[in-house]
Design brief:
Chain A: Keywords: Membrane, Transmembrane, Transmembrane helix. The complex is a heterodimer of chains A (about 325) and B (about 170). Chain A is of the alpha+beta class and about 325 residues long. Chain A has 7 helices and 19 strands. In chain B, about 70% of the residues lie in helices and about 0% in strands. The chains are: A alpha+beta (about 325), B mainly alpha (about 170).
Chain lengths: ~325, ~170
């Protein structure tokens, strides 16, 4: 009989060569210490302002880390219809195209591609994230003030550029591109008039109480996450922590994606104990359904009630998220 | 170079590799694991003279940074389309390699925090209380995650699995 500790040791064997050495660690540590010293006063302001809002306004306007602290107005996001719309439209800047691609309880996120790129995941250059009202993104480490963007306060937190895109609302941009280009992207951002998020499936059955909390669309396909109602409450009570479904018990994930993991793409629905259900759908895509703690029978029932669009490769055939799920799965408000 | 910095360098040289392994088992991606180790150790550098138990601090910081790595938007988007840890075992005839791949695939199916609990308890040998302190979560959560994690691993790997500390909770 194998010891788990031995198996774990074996699982981390065969590591690739390290990219960093002791000198790199020390250099980064020194930079961190220097930044910390230089911006000590700003860092104190962040802690005070953030803690204040977190205690007083669980789901109020985002805490921009500087006094004056935003007023404690309760802004419970209404989730009917517009909740599943992105909070901004895609846009272009010279050399780049920005496409909304992920919607969560906390934010709308867009992927930045080079102009003319096919939109493959690995070609992503950066991401723009606009936080919903009341969501306070987790900002750790040093904050460095920078020139305002479109007249609003902006600051750097390590390599992420944050700015206030409307009164009390924050957005961020970060990625592989230069700081100047991140600033250009932020400056071109215009909030509002976002399109509905879209999915490549229609879902006919879900276990009672499950709610749609994440919609992700990309070149690779369509991916959604649902959690039980109690999980939604937990996530809504801790905005900005990116809790999503990683730490919420009972996550259900449904994907219609191009298989890239080497797993079989079976012609018939195939369900494995603890391994979820999979079946090939049109255009070489694969439907997969995974649910934490769900029985295989329940997963099979869900999978059988999912109908993928005829050709997931054609985005024009996708459905608005709030049309593709039973009404009972749509959020109607967060208290 | 100060004595303190020399001490820090010695510590990093001795522990960096094993911390990377710990991070890898937690987040499932070697590159993300290295980023987690860099972030954690650079924070430790700043606090070096004030930290009483550098080993415990580093271990905790690395695991938490590795969990954070799994929450990054890009990472999560990529997770939707396949794990960095191989999800399929491709037998190559070498039993050790097969076993390694099977274990990685099994771990990749656990949620990140559950994986962290399993790794801290059964690789690092922490008890329930120490694991709860490291992850800043209740002891009950550690017990539940240990139980669920072991159950899942047994089902994925088969029953030929013994966990020395299982009786400890």
């Amino acid at each position: 009989m194998k010891q788990l500790s031995d198996l774990l040791r074996e699982a981390k064997a065969d590591a690739p060569p390290m990219r960093y050495d002791v000198g790199d660690v020390v250099a980064l540590g020194r930079r961190r210490r220097n930044r910390r010293t230089a911006t000590w006063a700003v860092a104190v302001a962040v802690v005070v302002a953030t803690a204040g809002v977190a205690l007083v306004v669980p789901r109020g306007p985002a805490a921009v880390p500087t006094p004056p602290v935003a007023s404690p107005t309760s802004v419970a996001p209404s989730a009917t219809g517009p909740f599943y719309n992105y909070s901004f439209r895609g846009f272009t800047v010279p050399g780049y195209r920005v496409t909304p691609s992920r919607l969560t309880l906390d934010s709308s996120l867009a992927t930045v591609f080079k102009a003319g790129s096919s939109g493959l995941e690995q070609e992503a250059q950066a991401s723009v994230e606009a936080y919903r009202p009341g969501v306070e993104p987790r900002i750790e480490g040093t904050v460095t003030e920078t020139e305002p963007i479109n007249g609003h306060r902006a600051f750097w937190n390590d390599d992420l550029l944050y700015w206030e895109y409307a009164e009390g609302l924050l957005a961020s941009v970060g990625g592989k591109v230069s700081r100047a280009e991140l600033r250009t992207l932020a400056t071109a951002f215009v909030p509002g008039r976002g399109q509905p998020s879209r999915v490549a499936m229609k879902v006919g059955y879900l276990p009672a109480g499950y709610r749609l909390v994440t919609v992700s669309e990309s070149f690779s396909g369509s991916y959604v996450e649902l959690v039980p109602e109690a999980g939604v409450r937990t996530m809504a009570s801790r905005p900005g922590e990116n809790l999503t479904t990683m730490t919420i018990p009972g996550e259900l994930a449904i994907a219609v994606t191009i298989p890239r993991d080497g797993l079989p793409n079976p012609a018939k629905l195939t369900c494995a104990d603890k391994g979820g259900c999979r079946v090939a759908v049109g255009g070489g895509y694969r439907l997969s359904v995974n649910g934490e703690g769900m029985t295989t029978a329940e997963l099979k029932k869900i999978a059988r009630a999912v109908v993928a669009v005829t050709d997931p490769g054609k985005a024009s055939t996708w459905l608005d998220a709030d049309e593709a799920f039973p009404t009972s799965a749509l959020l109607t408000g967060i208290k | 170079m100060s004595d303190s910095e020399a001490e820090f360098r010695t510590f990093v040289a001795a522990r960096m590799e094993s911390l990377r392994g710990l991070a890898y088992l937690t987040c499932g991606d070697w590159q993300a694991a290295e980023d987690a180790v860099m972030a954690a150790l650079s924070k430790l550098y700043v606090k070096w003279s004030r930290v009483e138990n550098p080993d415990a601090y580093a271990r905790t910081a690395v695991v938490r940074a590795a969990i954070d790595e799994t929450r990054r938007p890009w990472w999560r988007r990529e997770r939707a389309h396949g794990h960095a840890m191989p999800d399929r075992v491709v037998p190559d005839g070498a039993p050790v390699v097969d076993e390694r791949l099977r274990m990685r695939a099994a771990l990749s199916r656990l949620p990140a925090k559950q994986r962290a609990v399993i790794v801290l308890r059964f690789l690092e040998g922490l008890n329930v209380q120490e694991t709860a302190a490291a992850l800043k979560c209740p002891e009950g959560t550690v017990k539940a995650y240990t139980s669920r994690g072991l159950d899942a691993l047994r089902q994925i790997l088969g029953t030929e699995l013994e966990a020395r500390h299982e009786a400890a909770f």
